[in-house]
Write a structure and sequence with these properties.
Length: about 170
């Protein structure tokens, strides 16, 4: 195993544990929940095997579903954002993505915020729509998506800033 593979595996396990042991128990005002585990999908290396990546996204969501007893909503949302991620990588980073040379710790804050926000809001919208699954509660779905999404974006940006490795 390479060092990068071990780092990815460690990040996978740590994010699941932190999510289910800490962040699943945070519930601000009854409907604001952070889901920082999706940072694994957001920061996964762009040049890896796509089939493996979608499978790992499913596994990540499935593990959170098991611990949260949420019936597959996390797995569905994770697989969706893993599948559509190349579109957002190309939209946000353009030609840098074409050459698969994205280094997330070296991109500017605005591009990173745009990329994170798009994937997090899509993840949350799918997850809450499947969780509530009632068109008459569309305002509740949008409210939960907006506020939990903002909270998740703030936490994910802070985590990436705190744990980014500046290479010289």
């Amino acid at each position: 195993m390479t060092k990068e593979t071990l780092n990815i595996a460690a990040r996978f396990v740590v994010l699941i544990l932190v999510q289910v042991l800490i962040f699943n128990h945070i519930n601000f005002m009854g409907y604001i929940n952070p889901y920082i585990y999706i940072i694994f999908i957001i920061l996964f290396p762009a040049n890896n095997n796509r089939t493996l990546f979608v499978f790992l996204a499913f596994l990540l969501g499935f593990c959170v579903d098991i611990f949260s007893d949420s019936g597959g909503v996390h797995a569905a949302a994770c697989v969706t954002i893993a599948y559509i991620r190349p579109i957002f990588l190309k939209f946000t980073f353009g030609t840098v993505y074409d050459y698969q040379s994205i280094k997330f710790n070296q991109i500017d804050f605005g591009s990173k915020l745009t990329y994170f926000s798009a994937l997090i809001f899509i993840h949350h919208l799918i997850m809450y729509a499947l969780e509530i699954f009632n068109i008459s509660k569309i305002l509740l779905i949008l409210q939960k998506t907006l506020f939990s999404g903002i909270f998740t974006i703030i936490l994910c940006m802070l985590i990436t800033i705190l744990f980014s490795q500046k290479r010289k």
